[in-house]
Amino acid sequence: MKARLRRVGLPYLLLIPALALELLIHLVPMLVGIAMSFKQLTQFFIRNWSGAPWAGLGNYRTAVDFHAAVGQALLNSFLVTCSFTLLVVGLSWLLGTAAAILMQDAFRGRGVLRTLFLVPYALPVYAAVITWSFMFQHDTGLVNHVLHDQLHLTSGKPFWLIGGNSFYALVTVAVWRSWPFAFLCLTAGLQNIPRDLYEAASLDGAGVWQQIRRITLPSLRPVNQVLVLVLFLWTFNDFNTPYVLFGRSAPEAADLISIHIYQASFVTWNFGSGSAMSVLLLLFLLVVTAAYLFVTSRRRGAHA
Amino acid sequence: MQTSRVIAASVMAAVLTAGAAACGGGTSTNKTAPKTLTYWASNQGANIEVDKATLTPELTKFEQQTGIKVKLEVVPWSDLLNRILAAATSGQGPDVLNIGNTWSASLQATGALLPFDAATFAKIGGKERFVPSALASAGAAGKDPAAVPLYSLAYALYYNKAQFQAAGITAPPATWDELVADGKKLTTGGHFGLAMEGASISENIHQAFVFGKQHGADFFDAAGKPQFDSPQAVAAIQQYVDFMAKDKIAAPGDAEYSANQSVTDFATGKASMLLWQAAASNLKAHGMAADAYGVAPIPFQTASASGPTAVNSMVAGINLAVFKNTGNLDGALKFVKFMTSTGEQKILNIAYGSLPSVTDAQSDPAFSTPDLKTLSQVLATSAAPLPQVANESQFETLVGTAMKGLLADAAAGRPVTTATVKAALTKAQQQMPTS
Question: I need a labelling partner for B355 at 20 to 30 A (CA). Which of A163, B119, B319, B346 fits?
Fold first, then answer.
């Protein structure tokens, strides 16, 4: 009996260190964050935050009261983030797919091009984004120089880092940064498609578009399923790009949710309210992820 | 199987996003032996290396006098407040630190800083050594100060002498009407009368404060409640934004400046006037000779302003605070006494182009350059401290951001009216914490 218990217990015993670390590193901070969201944690209590008064659902009520300024700003930021994410994931995926398919067949200089494509992904975020912020400057930036001085496309020099255009500046930089990842994943995915499928298809008279539609894309489905999800989560939570591009207060048109939450907690010193917004964000991403996986998995079941 | 995979992936997603929920905290230790101190200095010189070179010989002097070794860390402004907040939250921080004086009341409210009561002041040589206006910006009124003033600064109007002469202007403007009139004379082609730092939250708020005072607007009432959108406050902010929106004496491009580009524009002659605090060392770094520019007090609304609206600068400056959790209180106070001693005040303020915060050091001839004489006169007669209330730093962020947005509108040619200014300020006020 004892020996059996020992035999059954051993694997669990071996799992304990990993489990303890997992709890410590992931779950405990998460639970602390959730606990903070129910507290009125302002600067008066950060020194001894367990002594902060309980706010109940107060922080959440403020966050979702869309008639008041705080809720309205959060809603605006949420909508901005949604359109930003849709555009960035869509464009990154499209660019990545196009480039991966074009690079599929061997040609001279393919290695060089592939390396070049991966540069934005390999560059340190800060260095890359600060360069973009120089390029987007109103008076001396490269973008305005090309658009206005060289090509005469705009009547006056537009602003890119403040006002409404900041949204497009942000999308541009984010796509530039994330499409190489899509390219990398899809290039790997393409290696697994047997060449004879294409040969058979061309014997049957299928053109390039038909081959892409009937062979390439369906074969890439499992890669795409993960890729789109990961891109979605990264883009939705992107903090570095807007922070380096716009500093600590982003223009309203480019007020991504992660920057907004940072402002709501760090800059205005209301950590309870910031945590409540983070928890709402977490719930939203969980729901979207679950729904996405549910839908995509079921569809695959139907196909098979 | 299907469900379990969805659950597993959801847990993954939760883990990926957990970072956002669990922000906060920070690491830094103060396992100080009695013979060492950790000191966080703010970035006062042209860069961090300059600060290290300036401070290290003084710290060595302190070690020779007391046997206490000071570990110096110069923290950039962009990180300083976050670092202090993290230190306050975790209780793990430096022994002595620099704070921007406008944060004093906000940080005082956290209880992380040692209050300077009568007994503490006695240990550092007495309260009366300090310049009163500088000491008034070291904490909320009626409370023991949370810090002592270290370096003092004030705003002044810097103007390009040669360009003034070329435009036929004989004296620097003393009222805003004169400034606008002069600005219009100086604005020709690609050249502008005034340089503004439109995307800088802190510059915006310092201007808002001065214009507010001159219009009789207080951003907090006596009970500390925010009142950002009073008619006076709206008029004040609108007057400042109108330099770009209506008077057009500032370049639209200034609306995106936040890295001291306006100082560069002034130094390189692209703009003729600049409202700045102690710009001398900065202008020198950009190659502008000291006799090429004049320094005058910031204009008022009327020529002979008096009473509570006769304010033309904030009391700007850096304070020195002691972290309450220090393991070496005695050594920390010795260090504060050393840094605020007359001798050190002279050395450090000369190096940084700022003014001493102790009365005895101010008589040194090094502080009677035209530039510093103007600043010290402003500081003595017409400067007021920013509101010393616990929610001050929230006010800075919200109103500063609102002004950044208004200037962006002005730059893009969208109308800036009393109504749009009021709407922006009302929105800022509504975002203030209710407590």
Answer: B119
Q: What is the CA radius of gyration of chain A?
A: 24
Mark yes or no for CB contact A159/B85 under 8 Å: no
In terms of CA atoms, which chain B residue is nearest residue A53?
B435
Q: Each residue of B359-411: pLDDT tens digit? A: 899 888 888 888 888 998 898 889 998 988 888 888 988 899 999 999 999 99
- Please indicate whether, in this complex, the C-beta atoms of B20 and A289 are within 8 angstroms of each other: no
What is the per-residue pLDDT across A179-228, written as a single tens digit (0 to 9) for each? 999 999 999 999 888 888 888 988 888 888 888 888 899 999 999 999 99
Q: Which of B2, B7, B23 to mutate to test the interface with A (most CBs of A within 10 A)?
A: B23
Q: Which of B11, B431, B434, B435 to mutate to test the interface with A (most CBs of A within 10 A)?
A: B431
Homologous superfamily (CATH) of B155-313+391-430 is Periplasmic binding protein-like II (3.40.190.10)
ipTM above 0.85, yes or no: no
**Pick from B23, B201, B435: which is nearest to A42 by CB?**
B435
Q: Do B20 and A258 touch (CB under 8 A)?
A: yes
**Which residues of chain B neighbour A40 with C-beta distances below 8 Å?**
435
A221 vs A175: CA distance, rounded Å: 21
Domains B36-153+315-384 and B155-313+391-430 share a fold: yes
Smallest CA–CA distance, residue A199 to chain B, in Å, is 35
**Quick check: A286 and B14 CB within 8 A?**
yes
pLDDT digits (tens, 9 = 90+) for B301-357: 998 888 889 999 999 999 999 999 898 999 999 999 999 999 999 999 988 888 999
Tokens of B313: 């600068």
- Domain coordinates of chain B in residue numbers? 36-153+315-384, 155-313+391-430
Contacts of B411 in chain A (CB under 8 A): 138, 159, 162-163
Taking 50 as the threshold, does the pLDDT of residue B11 lie above it?
no
Per DSSP, the three-state class of A123 is coil
State whether residue B152 is helix, strand or coil. Answer: strand
Sheet with B271-277, strands from edge to edge, namely B192-195, B271-277, B155-160, B293-296
Question: What mean pLDDT comes out for the span A58-72?
Answer: 86
Entry pTM: 0.83
List the single range of A141-145, A274-278, B278-282 with lowest mean pLDDT: B278-282
Strand order in the sheet with B148-153: B69-75, B36-42, B96-100, B316-322, B148-153, B355-356
Q: Please state which CATH number belongs to domain B36-153+315-384.
A: 3.40.190.10
**CB of B1 less than 8 A from some CB of A:** no
B31 compared with A58, residue with greater pLDDT = A58
Which among B2, B199, B435 has the least Cβ separation from residue A297? Answer: B2
**B89 chain-A contacts, CB cut-off 8 A:** 46-47, 49
How many whole angstroms from its chain centre is CA B314?
A: 9
